[in-house]
Amino acid sequence: xVKRILVVGGLFVTVLALKDVGAQNQPAQYVVSAxxxxxxxxxxxxxxxxxxxxxxxxxxxxxxxxxFLRLPKGAAPMHTHTASYHGVLVRGQAKHWPAGADxxxxxxxxxxxxxxxxxxxxxxxxxxxxxxxxxxxxGPYDFVPVVK
Length: 148
What we know:
Elements: H1 2-25, E1 40-41, E2 51-56, E3 65-75, E4 79-80, E5 85-91, E6 94-98, E7 113-116, E8 122-137, E9 144-145
Antiparallel strand pairs: 1-2, 2-3, 3-8, 4-9, 5-7, 5-8, 6-8
């Protein structure tokens, strides 16, 4: 009986210790207003190009990663990403289409969203002066343009 109490007591202490470790890994509650979000150019040589703000994860890490992507007006080259992702248009007007469907791409308004499988060829275009996207990648963030 004493042995059973010690085992149960040991398990209880282990559970409490693991609970504390998990709590230490969780971020404190925080709020960031839209005007306080800090963006960094994806290409330091082109600060007027695509800019990024990491919400969760590490841009140089293995993923997953959640980020804001701010784009200037214009089309991106056809490209892929290694990881699958969900995208939400937050501001602006844009188009997003799978390879071969650019003529059918509809104009997207804020609140529009899509799912893009990893390694699937697709295109994007910002139709406004600036577009803001919210992206959640299942793995690392990358951009692999298709060279013709």
